[in-house]
## 1
Amino acid sequence: DAPPEVHMRTQDGERSAAMLNISEGGLAFVTDREIPEYTQMEIQFHLIFKEKQTPPIGVTGQVRYCVELADKQGSYRVGIEFTRIDGEDKKLIADFVKSMSNSWFYRFLKK
């Protein structure tokens, strides 16, 4: 199973990345571009659990860290803190995290 795609928009334009993990407070993804700390961005993604895809979840977030991956030169792990999230979307994420042991995240991270 492939990780969900994250679609983001910053002042520099739009791009997609592969999500690594998520919580009610933020998410992490891998991208091929270094993104400076404190960059504000709009992010949209879907989660798949309970055999269904959620409607698009849209959040605003701020980059808290961006580190180059030692094993993949030119790839960066980026941590985002949500600065705006709808209450219903936050609940969807919380439900997803609770069901994580049966999700693609658990299988993906165990590899």
## 2
Amino acid sequence: WNGPVTQVAEPLKVTKAPLNYPNPFSVSSGTLLGYELSQDADITMHIFDAKGQLVYTFTFASGEEGGKSGYNRVSLNSYLWTRGLSPGVYFYILWSGGNVLARSRMVALP
């Protein structure tokens, strides 16, 4: 057969589960969230409180830090926690193209 070859794009995957360090962490110092993507993609990260209310949204463009292929490191610094978020349990979800890529939790201490 000499027909054209059609290349099928691999689906986007988080190849290394998101972890934040330190966890638990102090709201005054923040935490770093690291995850690995199989390819460049537009990424949205939602942070929810223990009641399930959305408290913050990050967006990362494809190819830039947070949305690039390979390892990404996102700083959830004290700026975020000094905007009225209190110590407690928070959950974060990584999305791309309407698909949930990963989810996890983190604990913020006073």
## 3
Amino acid sequence: YSFKGMRIGLDCANGAAWNMARTIFEALGATVDWDGETQTVTSVRGDKEVKLSIGSNVLYVNSQAVELDVPSQLINDRTMVPVRAVAESFDCFVDWDGEQKTVIIEDKTVS
């Protein structure tokens, strides 16, 4: 995907674009914390806190439940999250460039 001119690889499966949680959260300027006991990733950027648990079809933004089309997954000991859901949780615009096979992320909070 492309964000602020950075091109970062992603995986596509089950009709969604996926990336490692740490990669997408840090690219968006958010913190990342992993709780191995509950298999939950928590990320904060500004006044937004996003939480996802492995295998859950629900993402929480400031404690508000958002239903996901696909759950986050643990693949080869890496937390994989749906890029669109994560980016939109932090008020980013997400689009798909089919010709370039690229997810484009634009931060709506930056003018």
